[in-house]
C-alpha cells in the first residue's frame, strides 16, 4: 500500500509565512499564523491515529513550528501595540503635536 501525503502542508506554510509581514500591522498576523497552527495540529492528529498511511509529516512539523514562532512574535507585538496605545492615548494619535509631546518621554 502506497502512502499518501497529508493534505494541507502547503497551506500551512503559506499562512505561517503570511503572518510574519502582517506583524507590522498591529499584530494582525496572529490570525493567519493561528489558523496555520491549528490546521497543523489537526493534520498531525490525523497522522498519529494512522501513521502507516501518511508520508509527509515532517513538512507538517516544520509548518507547525514556523506558525508557532510567528504567532508568538505577533502576540508580543500586539501586546506592545496595546501598551503604546494605553500609554500614549488615543487622542494623541489623532493630533501630531500632542503625539510629539508625549513621545519625548519614551
TrEMBL record:
Q: Looking at the record's lineage, which domain of life comes first?
A: Bacteria
**Membrane-spanning parts:** 12-40, 61-83
Alphabetized UniProt keyword annotations: Membrane, Transmembrane, Transmembrane helix
Q: What is this protein called?
A: Interferon-induced transmembrane protein
Q: Which organism is it from?
A: Polaribacter pacificus
